[in-house]
From TrEMBL:
Cellular component GO terms, alphabetical: cytoplasm
Designated name of the protein: Tumor protein p63 regulated 1
Region listing for Disordered, in residue ranges: 1-57
Name of encoding gene: TPRG1
Pfam families the record matches: hSac2
HSac2 domain mapped to chain residues: 72-244
Start-end of Basic and acidic residues biased regions: 25-41
Similarity section: Belongs to the TPRG1 family.
Biased composition (Polar residues): 45-57
Cited InterPro entries: hSac2, Inositol_phosphatase, TPRG1-like
Length: 279
């Protein structure tokens, strides 16, 4: 029976036949020469440590095999989504898409949801895209002229919350949270929340392409000027406050978080390969 185990702790040894007192060729290279008239001194043999460089994955981005589980990283998936959404925007509103990003939306119950974001001259579009069927499932349109505050900071939770997350997020307000109804606030499926919270997609470090479209900083650099231009060009009668960009903690008001605990750890909000079922 053959057994494959760990090779740690094993050292290479040289095999010599009995009576063979001659040093090996490598030993000759590291010995110091001695005068024949001097007493023999202990000889120290220096050996260079072995260095092995892995060439299996020259891509500097780590864990490439994990990315294969996400359908968004499949060849052609992102490109197909971009073309579909650009065509839809051009047909319905005639606007030009300025940027395209793949981010993770965090809803008011701390559930992660994979989303595509597009910024045009007048609108922020939040798309729920099915990367398995390559189709848009839901599209939310937010007028840029209605956005009045953007917050960037670390996530924070109530002290008694059992389900907390780390990291940095971005929250966009187009309405006042104080005006949100109690039913909408405590309804996990409510679509009347006057703000949206985002963080970076877990596939950010898959490739250089995903590094560009999954960065919050890249999204911010396009979104802020677009909102400011929309405010200047707004023809509304009411005076809109200027856009405020703040750095402050982002509160997610959840306490037990059982739903998000199950959903987020199983990545239920992503188009993900979940294995095969069969015999």
């Amino acid at each position: 029976m053959s057994t494959i185990g760990s090779f740690e702790g094993f050292q290479a040894v040289s095999l010599k036949q009995e009576g063979d007192d001659q040093p090996s060729e490598t030993d000759h290279l590291s010995m110091e020469e001695e005068d024949p008239g001097k007493d023999p001194m202990p000889r120290q043999i220096s050996r260079q440590s072995s260095v092995t460089e892995s060439t299996l994955f020259p891509n500097p981005y780590h864990q490439p095999y994990i990315s294969r589980k996400y359908f968004a990283t499949r060849p052609g998936a992102i490109e197909t989504a971009m073309e579909d959404l650009k065509g839809h925007v051009a047909e319905t509103s005639g606007e030009t898409v300025q940027g395209f990003w793949l981010l993770t939306k965090i809803d008011h119950w701390n559930n992660e949801q994979e989303r595509i974001l597009l910024v045009t001259d007048k609108t922020l579009l939040i798309c729920k895209y099915d990367f398995i069927m390559l189709s848009c499932v839901q599209l939310q349109r937010i007028p840029l002229s209605a956005v009045y505050r953007i917050c960037l900071g670390n996530f924070t939770f109530p002290g008694m919350s059992l389900d907390k997350r780390r990291g940095e997020g971005l929250r966009i307000y187009w309405g006042s949270p104080e005006e949100q109804s109690l039913l909408s606030r405590w309804n996990p499926w409510s679509t009347e929340v006057p703000y949206a919270t985002f963080t970076e997609h877990p596939m950010k470090y898959t490739s250089e392409k995903f590094l560009e479209i999954c960065k919050l900083s890249g999204f911010m650099s396009k979104l802020v000027p677009a909102i400011q231009n929309a405010h200047k060009n707004s023809t509304g009668s009411g005076s809109r406050k200027k856009l405020m960009v703040l750095t402050e903690p982002i509160l997610i008001e959840t306490y037990t978080g059982l739903m998000s605990f199950i959903g987020n750890r199983n990545k239920l909000g992503y188009s993900l390969a979940r294995g095969s079922i069969g015999f």
